[in-house]
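Entry:
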Amino acid sequence: MNIADCSRIKEAPEAGWMLVYTRFEVIFEPYDSRELAQERLKGYEILEVHLFDRNTEYRCLESRSPRFDGRAETVADFPDDENVYRESVLLEKPWEDRRLIILNHISYGSDSKDDVMGHIDNYRLVMQETV
């Protein structure tokens, strides 16, 4: 997949962090603009890309499998509120002074939070700047 082929890339945060899975490596670093991120990723065979800031995450992935064949894109921008389960992941060098936060959005079987059958219907990544 080429990042320029992603139809919703303009909805990605203008600046933030990128987590990109390519055929041969993982790229995890900050970016200062969407254009610079796209330039940085030229020439890579991308499997999955996450561009995120504090409020929004853009995801695009391409797959060829029995379960799904094609490209999937989404923009996750739900608030960090009582319907979110937070996970904190400690990072390795050179980012060991930060944590990656995964915000898992929980939906319930009905409009009532008393319905205990919840499920995670979306997630987004957030970088915690210091531990």
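DSSP finds one helix and eight strands in the chain.
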